[in-house]
Amino acid sequence: MSAAVQAGTWRSGATWRNLFRDRPIIPLIALLAVLVVVIELASPGIVGPGWAGVIIRASIPLAILAGCQTLTMLTGGIDLSVGTTASMAGFVTATMVNSPGGVAQGIVIALVAAALAGLVTGIGVGVFRVHPLIMTLGMSFVVLGLSNVWQLQTVQTGAGVPPSLRTLGTGGFVELVPYSLIIFVPLMLLILVGLRRTGYGRLLYAIGDNPVAARLSGARSWQVLVVLYVISALLAAIAGFLVAGLTNTASVTLVESSLLPSVAAAVIGGTSIFGGRGGFGGTIVGALILTVLTALLTVLGLPEPTRQILFGAIIVIVAAAYARVTGEA
Amino acid sequence: MSAATGTADTVAARPTDMVTAWARRNTWTIGLLGLLVALFAFTKLIQPTYGIGGIQGLAISVLPLAFAAVAQAIVVIAGGIDLSIGSMMALTSVISASLMQGQSDAFGVGVVVGVLALGLVLGSINGGLVVVTGVPDIIVTLAMSFVWAGFALLVRSGPGGQASPWLMSFVNGSLGSPWIPRAAIVIAVVVAVVWIPFARSKTGLSVYAIGSSRLAAFRSGVAVGRTKILAYALTGLFAAVGGIALTGSTGIGSPVPGPYTLESVAAVVLGGVSLAGGRGGVFGPIVAVLVLQIIQTDLTFLNVNSNLAIVAQGVILIAVVIFGSLVEMRRSRR
After folding, report:
1. What confidence tens digit (pLDDT) does each residue in B224-233 have?
2. From CA A100, how far away is CA B325, in angstroms rounded?
3. Model-level pTM?
4. Is residue A87 within 8 Å of A242, Cβ to Cβ?
5. Closest Cβ opposite residue A129 in set B149, B313, B325
6. A260 at the B interface (CB within 8 A)?
7. For an interface test with B, which of A150, A309, A311, A324 has the most B Cβ atoms less than 10 Å from its Cβ?
8. What is the ipTM of this complex?
9. Could you tell me the fold of the domain covering A24-37+46-326?
10. Residue A177 host element (H or E)
11. Which of B37, B57, B74, B257 is the most exposed place for a label (fewest CB within 10 A)?
C-alpha cells in the first residue's frame, strides 16, 4: 500500500521524477545520508572521522570491483570472474614476497596473469560471441583451479601479505584519508573521465545501447570488448591487492564473497544490466551505501542470519524503487 | 488430441519423418548423449574395475545438481535466471533435516510434502517480485539468494539434523538390476511426472512463448506475468526437490549454500538451453550434469591434480559454448 501512495506522489511531481532519472546520484546520496543518520541514532557518537575512514577503506575495494561490473554492464555484459581474479592477484603477490624481485615482481606477475585471463575472456565474448555470463563464469573456474594449483606449488615457500600492501590497505594520512585513496582517486578519475570524455568510453555506451547501430556506425565491437575485459581483470587485480592488504590474509577465495555485492552496488548505483545506461559515480555511492548498510546492521547487534535477510531485502527494495522512479528497469 | 502433440509437427505423418524431425530438434542433446557414452567407455578403459559401484556413486553424487539444473532450465526457458537456487536448496535441505530428526517415517513423508510446498512458495515469491517490481531477474534473485540463505541460517546455524532412514534408502542403493541406481529412477520419475506433462500443456507452451518473445507472447494473449511467476514457482519446487535430495544423499542438512547456483547455470548452458530463453529442455541439462561429473571422476582416475578438474570444467564450459556459437554462426550464414 505504501508503495502505491509513494508512486502517487512521484507521479504528481513529474519534475522530481525527471530530476531523479537524469541525476540518479542525488537520491542515492540522500539515501546514504539517511543511513548515516540512522546509524548515528542507533549508536550515538559512532559517526566521526575515524568511522568514516573505516567505511571509506572498506568501500574502496568494493567500489573498484563494482567498477568492473559497471564497465561490463554498460556493454550489456557482466563479469563473474572478478572475485577469483582479485583473490588470485592478492594470493600470488603474497606468495612472491620472498622472491628476488620482492613485492614488485609479485605485483607485476599478478597483473600479467589477470590481464591474460581478461584477454581470454574478452576474446571469448568479443570474437566468439559467448554470453558474458557464461564466459566469465567459466573463466572464474579456470582461474580458481589454477590458483589452487599454484597454492600447492608454493605452500612450502611460505606466504604472507607484504607489509607495503598492509600499509596501503590499512594505513592513512589522517583518520579520514586512508592510503588506499592514493590508488583509488586516480583510478576513479580515469574511469569517470574515460567514460564521459573519451571515444572509447562512448563506444561502451554505444555497444550496450544498440549493438547493431554501433556496428553500422563503424564501431569494431570485438576490439572494444577485448580491451574492456582486460581492463576489468586489471581493476579486479588491483582490488585484490587492496583487500589482501586490508584483511592481512592471502587466500584463493578471499574476495569471492564480494562478487555478488559488487553486482548489487553497480545496480543500486543506477547502472542498467541491459547496457547503455549508468556510470561510475553512482556505483561509488552504491558501494558506500552497501558498506554503511552492512555497518548499520552490525551496529544494530542483529545476528548474522537477520543481517543477510535484511541486506537482500533492502537491495530488492532499492532496485524496485529505482525502477519505479525512473520508469525503466 | 491436438493438445497432446504440443510442439510436434503435425505434418510429419510418416514415422521416419517424425524421427528425423525429432532428431533435428534434439541434435544438441543427442550429441551430449554420445559424448556421455564415449566418456563411459573411456572410463571403463582407464579403470577396468569401474562398474556397478561407479555408476551408483555417480547417480547419487549428481542427484542434487541434476535437480538444480532442471530448476534452472525451467526459469531460463521462460527468459529469466534464478541465482537463488543454491540458497533455496540450502533452506529446504536444512528445514527437512531438522524436522525429520528423530521422527517417525510417516512424519518424514509429511515433511517432504510440506517442504515441496514451501519450494513452490519460495519460487512464487521470487517470481512475484520479478514481475511486480520490474527489476531484472538476475538482480532480484541475486538479492533473494541472501534472503533465503539468511533464513537457512536462522533455522540452523551449522550442519546438522538427520534425514529419515527411508529417505536415505530412497536415493541410495539400486532397484531391480544393480545397474539401475535408485537415484537415477528418482530423477526419471520426478521429471516424467512433473516436467513432461507440464511442457506439453498450454501453460508449458506459454513458458516457452514468453521466453522466446515476451511481446509476441503478450500479443498472442499469454498472461505474461502469471506465466513467469508459474515458471519461478516450478523452479522453486525443483530446488526444493534438490534440497531434499541433498538431505537424503548426505543424511544431514547444511545451511551454507553449495556451489549449485553457478554450476546449474553452467549445466543449463551445456545442456543446450539458450540463455536468451525459449529454447531447450530439461533432459539436456541432466545429461550435461552427468558429463561434468564423469569428467571429474576420470581426472581422478588419471591421477590428475584435483584442482585441474575445476580448470577442466571451466575450459569445457567455454569450449562447448564456443563450439555451439560457431555452429550457430555457420548455420545462419548459409
Report:
1. 999 999 999 9
2. 45
3. 0.84
4. no
5. B325
6. yes
7. A309
8. 0.81
9. ABC transporter involved in vitamin B12 uptake, BtuC (1.10.3470)
10. strand A177-178
11. B37
